[in-house]
Design a protein that fits this description.
single chain, alpha/beta, Rossmann fold, Helicase, Ruva Protein, domain 3, five-stranded parallel β-sheet, two-stranded antiparallel ribbon, 14 helices, 13 strands
């Protein structure tokens, strides 16, 4: 088995190569973008973008920001985690929170569900759980001499799947259909979950007894995997001040109908063609790293990200732009979300596992070498 090709190469942080994969020049609206590979003269700076932030988009951005701030009033620190919850909801995705116990994962999920309004359920996953415990079952009624369907706790707008990696294979299969198709097959009938619908799952990365690793197919159904760190000293002191006596409670600021409107507003956030091209190049670099200036990454990957990663990265970037009050996506949005959207979809090679290389390091390396587009007249990277 080869060694020494892993962490050192990935963490070396070389700059982008002088050249790149040739590609077709794209035209775009002002302000124009250059992808660092084509002459700026080929982009017409006089073309105009679609209508800017109208009153509806601005109101949607304010509502999304207010939801984040209300949840942040309860959750001390961890602003990145709370913001990612908003991104997942607006992008119609699911989010996996990974961190040691006591880092406010469950508190953040419950508080954000309160802010959103609608139905909320929490499911504590255990090794003895069976699919009927979560999706529902058929119940015999002696009075009517018929079976009736009793729907399970997953039929809610926000489902908190606590310690999801404790669930056995059959429950994981039921969750796969639920998260991917937003429906449940029960007694020969298909039952759709309510809209909007988001699964917020948590797992403890340091526990090994009584846990079942999530299969690749199910990890791929999560839009984001967010690593939740321990708080710093200042946040720890604020936790003592705010949470030790009469901790604050979140209040509802949205409702399901308004959340659907915000999702539609996120769909309308403008993406320049070169920003879309940047998303494609980042994902393609996980499949052919050498072609994108990262030959040292190739031995670390058994399989790259699927097209679901491209779709997810674009949708999440739109949602992040809306949360931050913009009607257009910046390359920095894509760069910021790339690790959380792409890393958990990769299959690492045995060499990478032996060398202790994390998928997050691999994606960070690719982000460092794949050049983003820059505004016309702006500095080249």
């Amino acid at each position: 088995m080869r060694r020494g090709r892993g962490a050192g190469g990935v963490l070396a942080g070389r700059g982008p190569p002088s050249g790149g994969r040739p590609g077709a020049t794209r035209r775009g609206p002002a302000p124009g973008w250059c992808n660092g590979r084509v002459p700026t003269a080929d982009l017409d700076p006089t073309e105009t973008a679609p209508a800017g932030a109208d009153a509806g988009t601005a109101a949607a951005a304010r509502a999304a920001a207010e939801a984040v701030e209300e949840a942040q009033r309860v959750v001390v620190g961890q602003r990145g985690m709370v913001e990612r919850l908003a991104v997942a909801v607006l992008a119609r995705g699911h989010v996996l929170l990974e961190g040691v116990p006591g880092t406010a994962k469950t508190l953040a999920a419950r508080s954000f569900a309160t802010v959103l309004g609608g139905a909320f359920t929490r499911i504590q996953f255990t090794p003895d759980l069976v699919p009927s415990d979560i999706v529902g079952t058929r119940i015999w009624s002696p009075a009517t001499e018929r079976f009736s369907v009793e729907l399970g706790p997953v039929f809610a707008n926000v489902v908190l799947a606590d310690e999801i990696n404790r669930a056995p294979a059959k429950v994981q299969a039921a969750m796969l259909e639920l998260m991917g198709e937003r429906q449940v097959s029960l007694a020969g009938q298909t039952h759709a979950v309510p809209e909007p619908f988001t699964v917020i799952a948590t797992q403890n990365p340091v526990e090994s007894e009584g846990v079942y690793p999530l299969p690749e197919a199910q990890r791929d159904r999560f839009l984001l995997q967010v690593d939740v760190p321990l708080p710093g000293a200042a946040d720890e002191a604020e936790i003592l001040r705010r949470m030790s006596v009469a901790p604050p409670r979140a209040r509802q600021v949205l409702d399901p109908a308004r959340v659907l409107e915000l999702q539609a507003a996120a769909d309308g956030v403008y993406v320049h063609p070169l920003v879309s091209d940047y998303v494609v190049r980042l994902v393609m670099a996980t499949r052919a790293p050498a072609a994108y200036g990262a030959p040292d990454v190739a031995p670390l990957l058994e399989a790259g990200a699927s097209p679901r990663a491209s779709l997810g990265l674009l949708a999440a970037s739109r949602a992040l732009a809306l949360v931050r009050g913009r009607d257009h996506v910046l390359p920095d949005d894509v760069r910021e979300l790339a690790v959380e959207v792409v890393a958990h979809r990769l299959v690492l090679s045995l060499d990478a596992l032996a060398d202790g290389v994390a998928a997050q390091q691999v994606v960070a390396r690719l982000v460092a070498v794949v050049p983003p587009p820059v505004p016309l007249g702006g500095p080249r990277r």
